[in-house]
Amino acid sequence: MIAERNSAASSIGANKTKRTAKVKVVTTIREMEIVIERWRGNRKKIGFVPTMGAFHEGHLSLIREARKTCDRVVASIFVNPLQFGPQEDQEAYPRDLKRDTRLAAQEKVDVLFVPAAKEMYPPDFTAQVKVGDQYIRTLCGKNRPEHFAGVTTVVTKLLNIIRPHKTFLGQKDYQQVLIIQRMVVDLNVGCEIVVLPTIRENDGLAKSSRNSYLSEEERRAAPAIYQALKLAEGMLQVGERNPKDMLEAVTKRLRTESLMDVEYVAAKNAYTLEDVNILAGRILVAIAVRLGKARLIDNIMVDVPSGS
Ligand code: PAF
Q1: Structural contact between residues 246 and 266, judged by C-beta atoms closer than 8 angstroms
Q2: What is the pLDDT of residue 68?
Q3: CA torsion sign, 102 to 105 to 109 to 112?
Q4: List of domains in the chain
Q5: Mean pLDDT computed over 225-237
Q6: Alpha-carbon span 244 to 151, nearest angstrom
Q7: Whose Cα sits closest to atom 6 in ligand 1?
Q8: Best residue among 49, 148, 153, 154 to mutate for probing ligand 1, ranked by most atoms within 8 Å of CB
Q9: Which residues' Cβ are closer than 6 Å to ligand 1?
Q10: What's the pLDDT at 19?
């Protein structure tokens, strides 16, 4: 089950150092394996932060925690084609390797692993790793049947190449985290998954690389997502136990923003992602919306005492 750890977030740029820090950029699997072999031989504890790049404070909080708790830190940047559907934003996905490299150096990442698609998926590649449908065919997987198999396939490859002791993921992608945890347990991957809290803008909007797609008007509407989650939390705290009533109120709040196209609003058992008849136990409240070109997700977890 997802265990959260706290992290302090400082803003990008606030952490500038005078030294001209450099980070080693590795693009081939073979070179990455040689580095890992050496570190493992020297009994170094390896921390890993998998990303698709376009770093924001959420990524940096993961890197900082890895830096604090491990001897060596690898961050990967790979916009994984397997997890994008045909109509999705793979081509448009924000990329800025120069800026990411600078930030990685500032945060003292030891290696930035940036493989090309043909390095990860040569023409004869056929494998797929996926967990059970109850995890991947709901929420963000409902209308995207291949998405989470794409995620678990690439993460398996990355974990096999980097062989980290700890991998750091953000709670914003709660379903992804649960799925990766399931895969790591089911397949006996010897790696601890460390989950850190969602990093937010001052107005509550979860940091995401896709926020860069928002127009000014859309950006003004976007905090309604977190406000709707807080509304759910408040309702649970004052005793709401009927999922239908709560989800209706949350959806209504989102729809006050006319630009927002609600994809789903859901209340689930946070351990299994099953629907609940009564809001009790650990409840995941999750939202996905489309706002212009951006598909944005967010969630909160609420522990609702049973029988209250
Ligand atoms: O969350 C992401 O950035 C990606 O899904 C991940 C985990 C790096 C796999 O491509």
Answers
A1: no
A2: 98
A3: positive
A4: 7-196 (3.40.50.620), 209-301 (3.30.1300.10)
A5: 98
A6: 31
A7: 51
A8: 154
A9: 50-52, 80, 83, 151, 154-155, 173, 176
A10: 52
